[in-house]
Amino acid sequence: MKIAIIVPLFPPKWLAGMELATWNIAKHLVRRGHEVHVITTRDAGLTGESQEEGFYVHRLRCPKARFLGPLLFLIKALLALRKINPNIIHAQSIFPGLYALIAKKVLGKPYLLQNHGMVYVSRPFRNQISKLVLRNADAVLALTEDMKEEMQKICSRDIHVLPNGIDLEKFESLSKDEMRCKLQIKTDERLVIFVGRFRPVKGVEYLIKSMEIIRQRDQSIRLVLVGEGPEEENLKSLTKQLKLEGCVEFVGQISTEKVPQYMAASDVFVLPSLSEGFPLVSLEAMASGLPIVATKVTGLPEIIEDGENGFLVEPRSPEQIAQKVLLFFEDNELRGTMSRNNKEKAKKYGWETVVQRLEDVYQNHL
Hints:
Elements: E1 2-6, H1 17-31, E2 35-41, E3 49-52, E4 55-60, H2 68-84, E5 88-92, H3 94-107, E6 111-114, H4 124-136, E7 139-142, H5 145-154, E8 160-161, H6 176-182, E9 190-195, H7 204-217, E10 221-226, H8 232-241, E11 248-252, H9 259-265, E12 268-271, H10 280-287, E13 292-295, E14 310-313, H11 318-330, H12 332-346, H13 351-365
Parallel strand pairs: 1-2, 1-5, 2-4, 5-6, 6-7, 7-8, 9-10, 9-12, 10-11, 12-13, 13-14
Antiparallel strand pairs: 3-4
């Protein structure tokens, strides 16, 4: 089967959940014998055409202009699709779905829409586009049941739930002591970790504020923040204002290969988001055997079962975050149980399993 995937941004520059998921979907579809072409925008320093992990990447150079950029991308994408002549177009999110819809009308190719969270941002114009794209798609995927319900409010139709996946082998056999030695982390430190973009919706400010409470009870607990983003300077200012510079470390953006190392070196993972689709980082924490503290928002309760593999707290609540983090460090047996539960739960999210289910959707609907 020849499959074309349209995604606005792509590694190596862009490493958020949708971009990494696209990379892994393409890689694992190739392993299952398919020919895969990824159509995306072109970042500085990269060639227009390349082959990576067995799949083809077509990077289209387009200006950043608000209307001209998307229009030129559409034209170039249509030309690329006509040349590739795929059996299926797989659109990653709503606006790529609009390109896929136009390609369906012009080239007669069926398309699958996979939503990654834009449905949670409600705007009249965006909702109209979403309805149009959803109604005309030959198959639709949501990452969670919650996302499916939100999408069906826009367009009442059949929607499959297919989560993101994870390369489990990257997280196996990593020793905490070895990783701490490699990353120069003291063996007696108790480490809380966050990995993600520094954006307001990620709620990192509430995690930093929780450290002020945590440190009053336990001076050995330290917070490591992995990532970068528009809120970085504000978060650093907040850390300084709360006099937490000695126990809150900003690591910066790291490679995907290093994420498992930082996870393995840590004790507890916290995701204080105000809204989420299906965060890949939560699966990475699970595969690393980290107990999780996460907010009770959108799709997170489908991943984190309160009291089973982590704790759910209310958003914007530094007090609740601090309470649950401290509980993990005060109860080693609880932490060990949740660690084992997470490693077991992570197995059903292996990319091999997820992509096999995706392949079934292709064959049954397209």
